[in-house]
Protein backbone atom coordinates (compact mmCIF):
# COMPACT_ATOMS: atom_id res chain seq x y z
CA UNK A 1 0.00 0.00 0.00
CA UNK A 2 1.25 3.46 -0.88
CA UNK A 3 1.48 5.86 2.07
CA UNK A 4 -0.78 8.92 1.77
CA UNK A 5 0.95 12.29 1.55
CA UNK A 6 -0.45 14.83 3.99
CA UNK A 7 -1.31 17.96 2.01
CA UNK A 8 -2.26 21.53 2.90
CA UNK A 9 -4.85 23.47 0.92
CA UNK A 10 -6.95 26.52 1.86
CA UNK A 11 -5.90 26.32 5.50
CA UNK A 12 -6.84 22.63 5.85
CA UNK A 13 -4.44 19.78 6.49
CA UNK A 14 -5.74 16.91 4.38
CA UNK A 15 -4.78 13.34 5.19
CA UNK A 16 -3.92 12.76 1.52
CA UNK A 17 -3.15 14.57 -1.67
CA UNK A 18 -6.17 12.81 -3.20
CA UNK A 19 -8.53 14.48 -0.71
CA UNK A 20 -6.93 17.86 -1.46
CA UNK A 21 -7.50 17.26 -5.20
CA UNK A 22 -11.19 16.65 -4.52
CA UNK A 23 -11.31 19.92 -2.53
CA UNK A 24 -9.86 21.70 -5.59
CA UNK A 25 -12.54 19.99 -7.71
CA UNK A 26 -15.32 21.14 -5.34
CA UNK A 27 -13.97 24.70 -5.47
CA UNK A 28 -13.84 24.57 -9.29
CA UNK A 29 -17.54 23.61 -9.47
CA UNK A 30 -18.35 26.10 -6.71
CA UNK A 31 -19.63 23.63 -4.12
CA UNK A 32 -19.35 24.65 -0.48
CA UNK A 33 -17.47 21.97 1.45
CA UNK A 34 -16.34 21.30 4.99
CA UNK A 35 -13.62 18.77 5.75
CA UNK A 36 -13.86 16.13 8.51
CA UNK A 37 -16.32 18.10 10.61
CA UNK A 38 -17.64 15.36 12.91
CA UNK A 39 -17.12 11.69 13.72
CA UNK A 40 -19.91 9.14 14.25
CA UNK A 41 -20.20 5.98 16.33
CA UNK A 42 -21.51 3.36 13.91
CA UNK A 43 -21.90 0.68 16.57
CA UNK A 44 -20.38 -2.65 15.52
CA UNK A 45 -18.71 -0.94 12.54
CA UNK A 46 -16.73 1.38 14.83
CA UNK A 47 -16.17 5.11 14.72
CA UNK A 48 -16.26 6.89 11.37
CA UNK A 49 -15.05 10.33 10.28
CA UNK A 50 -16.55 11.30 6.89
CA UNK A 51 -14.24 13.21 4.55
CA UNK A 52 -16.44 16.04 3.25
CA UNK A 53 -19.86 17.51 3.92
CA UNK A 54 -21.13 19.39 0.88
CA UNK A 55 -23.84 22.00 1.40
CA UNK A 56 -25.27 23.39 -1.79
CA UNK A 57 -28.46 25.41 -1.93
CA UNK A 58 -30.77 23.60 0.50
CA UNK A 59 -29.16 20.17 0.06
CA UNK A 60 -26.46 18.31 1.96
CA UNK A 61 -24.47 15.22 1.12
CA UNK A 62 -21.36 13.45 2.34
CA UNK A 63 -18.47 12.78 -0.04
CA UNK A 64 -16.24 9.90 0.96
CA UNK A 65 -12.93 9.64 -0.90
CA UNK A 66 -10.79 6.50 -1.34
CA UNK A 67 -7.78 5.85 -3.59
CA UNK A 68 -9.35 2.69 -5.04
CA UNK A 69 -12.59 0.71 -5.09
CA UNK A 70 -14.46 0.71 -1.77
CA UNK A 71 -14.30 -2.50 0.26
CA UNK A 72 -17.48 -4.20 1.49
CA UNK A 73 -16.76 -2.87 5.00
CA UNK A 74 -16.29 0.69 3.70
CA UNK A 75 -19.58 0.45 1.79
CA UNK A 76 -21.33 -0.77 4.95
CA UNK A 77 -19.88 2.16 6.90
CA UNK A 78 -21.09 4.64 4.27
CA UNK A 79 -24.56 3.05 4.31
CA UNK A 80 -24.67 3.19 8.12
CA UNK A 81 -23.60 6.86 8.06
CA UNK A 82 -26.34 7.70 5.54
CA UNK A 83 -28.94 5.88 7.63
CA UNK A 84 -27.78 7.47 10.90
CA UNK A 85 -27.59 11.07 9.60
CA UNK A 86 -30.29 10.99 6.91
CA UNK A 87 -27.72 12.50 4.53
CA UNK A 88 -26.71 10.63 1.34
CA UNK A 89 -23.11 9.50 1.02
CA UNK A 90 -21.37 9.55 -2.35
CA UNK A 91 -18.41 7.21 -2.70
CA UNK A 92 -15.62 8.57 -4.89
CA UNK A 93 -12.58 6.49 -5.74
CA UNK A 94 -9.49 7.88 -7.40
CA UNK A 95 -9.07 11.36 -8.82
CA UNK A 96 -12.07 13.20 -10.28
CA UNK A 97 -12.83 12.09 -13.81
CA UNK A 98 -15.74 11.90 -16.23
CA UNK A 99 -17.66 8.90 -14.93
CA UNK A 100 -20.45 7.89 -12.56
CA UNK A 101 -20.08 7.72 -8.79
CA UNK A 102 -22.55 5.79 -6.63
CA UNK A 103 -24.41 6.95 -3.56
CA UNK A 104 -25.10 4.73 -0.56
CA UNK A 105 -28.37 6.45 0.20
CA UNK A 106 -31.47 4.48 -0.62
CA UNK A 107 -34.41 6.41 -1.98
CA UNK A 108 -37.89 5.23 -3.04
CA UNK A 109 -36.54 4.70 -6.55
CA UNK A 110 -33.41 2.88 -5.34
CA UNK A 111 -29.77 3.92 -5.41
CA UNK A 112 -28.68 6.61 -7.80
CA UNK A 113 -25.44 7.84 -9.30
CA UNK A 114 -24.03 11.23 -10.12
CA UNK A 115 -21.82 11.88 -13.10
CA UNK A 116 -19.05 14.33 -13.79
CA UNK A 117 -19.29 15.19 -17.49
CA UNK A 118 -16.13 14.09 -19.34
CA UNK A 119 -13.94 17.07 -20.20
CA UNK A 120 -15.48 19.30 -17.52
CA UNK A 121 -12.95 22.06 -16.57
CA UNK A 122 -13.21 21.10 -12.89
CA UNK A 123 -11.59 17.75 -13.72
CA UNK A 124 -8.56 19.49 -15.21
CA UNK A 125 -8.35 21.81 -12.19
CA UNK A 126 -8.27 18.88 -9.77
CA UNK A 127 -5.92 16.73 -11.82
CA UNK A 128 -3.42 19.52 -12.54
CA UNK A 129 -3.32 20.95 -8.99
CA UNK A 130 0.28 21.05 -7.75
CA UNK A 131 1.04 20.88 -4.04
CA UNK A 132 4.79 20.23 -4.11
CA UNK A 133 7.37 22.71 -2.85
CA UNK A 134 4.84 25.22 -1.60
CA UNK A 135 2.96 25.49 -4.89
CA UNK A 136 -0.70 26.42 -4.55
CA UNK A 137 -3.50 25.34 -6.92
CA UNK A 138 -5.22 28.13 -8.82
Number of DSSP strands? 10
Strand order of the largest sheet: 3-6-7-8
At the first level of CATH, the class is: Alpha Beta
Can you write the helix and strand succession as a string? EEHEEEEEHEEEH
CATH topology: Trna Endonuclease, Chain: A, domain 1
Shape: globular
Report helical residue fraction. Answer: 10-25%
> Which sheet architecture does the biggest sheet show?
4 strands, mixed
User: What's the end-to-end separation, in Å?
Assistant: 30 Å
Q: Care to describe what's here?
A:
- This protein has 138 residues and is α+β, with helices and mostly antiparallel strands.
- The protein has one domain: 3-Layer(aba) Sandwich (Trna Endonuclease, Chain: A, domain 1), CATH 3.40.1350.10.
- It has three helices and ten strands, in the order ββαβββββαβββα.
- β6 and β7 form a beta hairpin.
- The longest helix is centred in the middle third of the chain and has 14 residues.
- The radius of gyration is 15 Å and the shape is globular.
Amino acid sequence: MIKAIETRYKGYRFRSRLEARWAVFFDAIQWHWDYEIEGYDLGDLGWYLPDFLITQYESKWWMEIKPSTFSDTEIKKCAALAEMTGIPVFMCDGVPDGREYPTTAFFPNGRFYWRIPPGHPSIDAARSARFEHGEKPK
